[in-house]
TrEMBL record:
Its EC number is 1.17.99.6. It catalyses: epoxyqueuosine(34) in tRNA + AH2 = queuosine(34) in tRNA + A + H2O. It holds the Pfam family Fer4_16. Pathway: tRNA modification; tRNA-queuosine biosynthesis. PROSITE patterns: 4FE4S_FER_1, 4FE4S_FER_2. This is Epoxyqueuosine reductase. GO terms for biological process: tRNA queuosine(34) biosynthetic process. It is found in: Cytoplasm. Keywords: 4Fe-4S, Cobalamin, Cobalt, Cytoplasm, Iron, Iron-sulfur, Metal-binding, Oxidoreductase, Queuosine biosynthesis, tRNA processing. Cob(II)alamin binds at residues 70, 148, 172, 183, 230, 255-256. The gene is queG. [4Fe-4S] cluster 1 binds at residues 202, 205, 208, 262. SUPFAM superfamilies: 4Fe-4S ferredoxins.
Length: 360
């Protein structure tokens, strides 16, 4: 959303910035920082171009579009001077410990950011309220809010604003909150004082690289998305490469291994947001039970969930792979055989692969 600028030159931007941070905390953000939208991003642009040239983005064609709009905010929202970055914790209370689910091949592991309601709407509403607070204080101003919803390099802007540093797994890390948080941004024409970046505290640690099930983190700060389980289970719409299926294990929506092993996540905080609480027992549920959901159950139980956007067919594809990697049992075989003639060729392919795994 944008409003016409009527910001007056006598505006005390130092006090306004302090107010913005206070409002942000009142709205549930754990931190609010400001970056210069005109910061030199030439090295970032070069790195992004090289990453795309190597094809590491896989089928995510949207990563190729928009050109330099990703790194030059004023090309996306004319007049942008600052990027306000925010973070919001998402670890729900009483959530089942991740490793315990990963070690039980009969259970379905779902990335912990997705066991509650969709974060996009939650953060956008809060960011809009923050903008409303600002306009209530100073009058109309130009802005646009984002939550993983446009060509915005959110980790890079969060890094420049001092929200944290980029870890070797490419996610943002914070000394106060680890990496279990969502990011959001507001592009604005307000000439706010900028915050200083923080130094990296990863040191020589390579735990995130070493733990990756598919070795998608090919080096520090280098991710081949084509091998990443989050990409394979969420972004990839077609068939999952056979060579990677056994490596996926029981991860049916995303993967948290690189975060689970990160020492900084001992500082991660439990969220206070009711919307991020576990729904439908998704933190501790069996693969067989999920595979038996009808399309109607999928649509109703996952209404308002980020999982719903991948669709029922892709959901069954993912669970079929999980069942193929599960310990053999009559219940697992029966669940797979029940979908051996599924109307979807994609589901049938992965079901038959899974059955073959149990016949070996």
């Amino acid at each position: 959303m944008q409003e016409e600028t009527s910001t007056n030159s006598s505006l005390d931007v130092i006090l306004l910035k302090e107010s913005i941070k206070n409002w942000g905390r009142q709205l549930g953000f754990q931190d609010v920082r400001v970056a210069d939208a005109n910061a030199n991003m030439s090295s970032v642009e070069a790195e992004l171009s090289a990453w795309l040239d190597k094809g590491f983005h896989g089928d995510m064609d949207y990563m190729v579009k928009h050109g330099t709009k990703r790194t030059r905010p004023a090309e996306l929202v004319p007049g942008t001077l600052r990027v306000i970055s925010v973070r919001m914790n998402y670890t729900p209370p009483a959530v089942k410990e991740g490793w315990s689910i990963l070690e039980d091949g009969n259970k379905a592991f779902i990335s912990r950011y997705a066991v509650g309601r969709d974060y996009h709407k939650v953060l956008r509403i809060r960011l809009q309220k923050l903008a409303d607070n600002i306009s209530g204080k100073i009058g109309p101003f130009n802005y646009r809010v984002f939550t993983d919803s446009a060509p915005v390099m959110e980790v890079e802007w969060a890094k420049k604003s001092g929200l944290g540093w980029r870890g070797k797994h490419t996610l943002l890390l914070s000394r106060e909150g680890g990496s279990y948080f969502f990011l959001g941004e507001m592009y604005t024409d307000l000439p706010l004082p900028v915050d200083d970046p923080v130094e990296s505290y990863c040191g020589s640690c390579t735990r995130c690289i070493d733990i990756c099930p598919t070795q998608a983190i090919i080096g520090p700060y280098q991710l081949d998305a084509r091998r990443c389980i989050s990409y394979l289970t969420i972004e990839l719409k077609g068939s999952i490469p056979e060579a990677l299926r056994t490596l996926i294990g029981n991860r049916v929506y995303g993967c948290d291994d690189c975060q689970l092993v990160c020492p900084w996540n001992k500082f991660a905080k439990i969220t206070q947001e009711a919307d991020f609480a576990v729904r439908n027992g998704l933190d501790d549920i069996s693969l067989v039970e999920l595979f038996q959901w009808s399309k109607e159950e999928f649509e109703s139980k996952l209404a308002g969930s980020p999982i719903r956007r991948i669709g029922y067919e892709q959901w069954l594809r993912n669970i079929a792979v999980g069942l193929g990697n599960a310990p053999s049992s009559p219940a697992v075989i029966e669940a797979l055989q029940a979908r051996n003639h599924d109307p979807s060729p994609l589901v049938r392919e992965h079901v038959r692969w899974a059955l073959w795994q149990h016949e070996k």
